[in-house]
């Protein structure tokens, strides 16, 4: 081989060497830093969950207690549940209407239906949670058979619960209501038969536990019985499990589609809530789901 050929071969080898060297040291040929890439991906996906506050007004027992039970679960889902207890349950619907709260939990549908037209409430019911079987309580009598002629019986004076109380007395054979009562509303004027000539004392529901010493007995909502520290098992008789008076979550119409409201409904109807209600309240509160 001549000098010219040797020179050309040497030039080719130099060029090849330069190319190989460049591939070994250049940025485009470096192995990817998989650890850094993974950290970057994690950082981009692990964004903090935005917390939303849902303010709900409730009766003290059992409503607020049930709500407080689900607070930790909702917290994990980004919902800060703020439970506001109202001593005067009559203020819960006005507070919802005036946007002081986002939802309320204290009433059943017959009660809501009895007041929403008069008050102009544009509300929606989202879920049923529990039934509080209304019952007949007495500090003087030991059984239904001891109810004597002319006995004074206390009953709630709001329309739906008054009907509910009278319907319970009818179920027990103590009175007979007029036929055709279809609106969940009735007063003693709607009694068609009263063989024991019972006298009815219409009073605010919250006052009935305190009025027991002055009456032969009264029909009282279970939440008020619990608040008054009366043993719910002491009821002489009560509604059965078929009661239509399930307590519900109520929101302003349109808010039932809010994500945090849906999460609240799901949390309140979970199996662990059913167990909590049964374990804590026994016969006094019955899950409605």
UniProtKB/TrEMBL annotation:
GO terms for cellular component: membrane. A lipid is attached at residue 23 (S-diacylglycerol cysteine). Keywords: Lipoprotein, Membrane, Palmitate, Signal. Residues 1-26 form the signal peptide. It is a lipid-anchor. InterPro entries: Lipoprotein_NlpA. Coiled coil: none annotated. Its main location: membrane. Pfam families: Lipoprotein_9. It is found in: Membrane. Belongs to the nlpA lipoprotein family. This is Lipoprotein. It comes from Paenibacillus tianmuensis. The lineage of its organism: Bacteria, Bacillati, Bacillota, Bacilli, Bacillales.
């Amino acid at each position: 081989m001549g000098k010219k050929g040797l020179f050309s071969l040497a030039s080719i080898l130099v060029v090849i060497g330069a190319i190989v060297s460049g591939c070994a040291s250049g940025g485009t040929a470096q192995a990817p830093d998989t650890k850094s890439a993974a950290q970057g991906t994690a950082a981009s996906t692990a964004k903090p969950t935005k917390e939303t506050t849902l303010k709900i007004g409730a009766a003290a027992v059992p409503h607020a207690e049930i709500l407080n039970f689900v607070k930790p679960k909702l917290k994990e889902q980004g919902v800060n549940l703020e439970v506001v207890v109202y001593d005067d349950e009559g203020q819960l619907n006005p507070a919802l209407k005036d946007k002081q709260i986002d939802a309320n939990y204290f009433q059943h549908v017959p009660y809501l239906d009895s007041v929403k037209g008069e008050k102009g409430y544009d509300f929606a019911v989202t879920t049923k949670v529990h039934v509080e079987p209304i019952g007949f309580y007495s500090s003087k009598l030991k059984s239904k058979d001891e109810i004597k002629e002319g006995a004074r019986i206390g009953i709630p004076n709001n329309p739906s619960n008054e009907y509910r109380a009278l319907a319970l007395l009818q179920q027990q054979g103590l009175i007979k209501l007029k036929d055709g009562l279809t609106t969940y509303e009735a007063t003693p004027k709607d009694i068609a038969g009263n063989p024991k000539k019972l006298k009815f004392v219409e009073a605010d529901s919250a006052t009935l536990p305190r009025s027991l010493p002055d009456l032969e007995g009264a029909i009282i909502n279970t939440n008020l019985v619990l608040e008054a520290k009366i043993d719910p098992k002491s009821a002489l008789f009560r509604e059965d499990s078929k009661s239509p008076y399930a307590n519900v979550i109520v929101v302003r119409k349109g808010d039932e589609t809010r994500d945090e409201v849906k999460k609240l409904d799901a949390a309140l109807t979970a199996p662990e809530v059913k167990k909590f209600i049964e374990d804590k309240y026994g016969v006094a509160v019955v899950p409605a789901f």
